[in-house]
Amino acid sequence: MKRKNSIKRDLNRRQLFQKLELKRMIYKSLIHDFKISEKDRYFYTQKLNQLPRNSSLVRIKNRCIITGRGQGILNFCGLSRIKFRDLAQQGLIMGWNKASW
């Protein structure tokens, strides 16, 4: 049950990030723009701080799409190294087979 909750939590974080990404980028660019007044930059800093912490990119964790494992994830397929190895040995991943020499 623990992994299911972590998968659901990560999915919620991804959805929240996608929803607020543009707003977060706008606030950050306005904060770093020295052409506007310091008072306005402070205002946008406060607005950025009011956004949920889970809407940040660094809060997203790559997880295996089958098992929910959080470590050893292969980026090109989204599987953990263990699950990828099992599926490749069974011949379920096209183009991959166990090397033998």
TrEMBL record:
Coiled coil: none
Secretion signal, residue range per the UniProt entry: none
GO cellular component: mitochondrial small ribosomal subunit
One Gene Ontology term from the biological process aspect of the record: translation
Keywords, sorted A to Z: Mitochondrion, Ribonucleoprotein, Ribosomal protein
Recorded superkingdom: Eukaryota
GO MF entry, a single one: structural constituent of ribosome
InterPro entries the record matches: Ribosomal_uS14 (IPR001209)
Stored SUPFAM superfamilies: Glucocorticoid receptor-like (DNA-binding domain)
PANTHER family documented for this protein: 30S RIBOSOMAL PROTEIN S14 (PTHR19836), SMALL RIBOSOMAL SUBUNIT PROTEIN US14M (PTHR19836:SF19)
Family, as annotated: Belongs to the universal ribosomal protein uS14 family.
Protein name, UniProt field: Ribosomal protein S14
Naturally occurring in which organism (per UniProt): Helicosporidium sp. subsp. Simulium jonesii
